[in-house]
Amino acid sequence: MSETPRFADPAPAAAPGEDSRIDHGDHGDRDSAMRAARAAAKALCAGQQIPDACLLMVATPIGNLADVGLRTLAMLQRCDLVAAEDTRAAQRLLQAWGLSLPLLRADRHREQEAAQQVLAQLREGRRVAFVSDAGTPGIRDPGAVLARSARAAGYAVLALPGPSAVTTALSASGIDLEAGYVFAGYIPATEGRRRDFLAEALGHARTVVCFETPHRIESTVEWLQRLAPQRKLLLAKELSKQFETYVDGDAAALLQWLRTDPRHAQGEFVLLIGADAEVAGADLPLQARRWALRLAREMPASRACALAAEMSGAPRRELYRWLLLQPAGHGRADDASQ
Known about the structure:
This protein is an alpha/beta fold. The chain has helices at about 25-45, 70-75, 85-95, 110-125, 145-150, 165-175, 190-200, 215-225, 250-260, 275-280, 285-295, 300-310, 315-325; strands spanning about 1-5, 55-60, 80-85, 105, 125-130, 155-160, 180-185, 205-210, 235, 245-250, 270-275.
């Protein structure tokens, strides 16, 4: 098990729903910095043309307000209205950067109604930005209905890329993602549905990424210990905040870490569930897998897979990825070019 704490700079923003701010000490210095950032953003993006009537899907910080991109600041200054999953969070974000725009509530409960209001604005030639409370719109957040409605009505829909808890956790995980990954959203709250969800996730041939809440994280890892005690897991919490932390290992190791300090179970979690090694290798010839395992006891994994592939005709890269998923001792990553 390894634990890697990381520290955001400047001071972290609070969790969604709490007060989020950038604290630079002296308000005069802070205001000057904000004005300079807005001016720089405007200058850098001066040549970018966007339609008068368009919907901008705007990614917002997942915990640290300083993660707003300069292009986002520039484009928001050109918008006439901000539709928001959480208008309070949107207001804090705008105020933090010295921006003031009308707000329209567009949470999941009234997304259809909000879509009609957004279309009315677009018909008047106005630019509308949509922001979720944290992260990239439409990725387990509202936004898809608005984007679909605007496209169907013939209006341009553009995306301003930025923070995402999914890709943030994956990029720091060290997991080989050449075969791709599966994003499964939030783990269900009820015991039965959670068990079924995890059983399905454990059967994937790719890494599964999901979200979990602090009051259920221990129960979820307990289920994983029952269902797949040897599976490789990674917990990422408080992403982009002061106590950003990554913990990897099997379920027993994660449970031990969660229970050593009550604070470890606080915050929002991204859970990465390693791929099922047998499913991942199901399309590979059985003899090729046997040769790769045998040869890997005597030589580096890359060489073992090259020989096994040559003898069997199996694809070397897929065989190598499969070998790395096997229990410790069968193979190790030894060639970054694989």
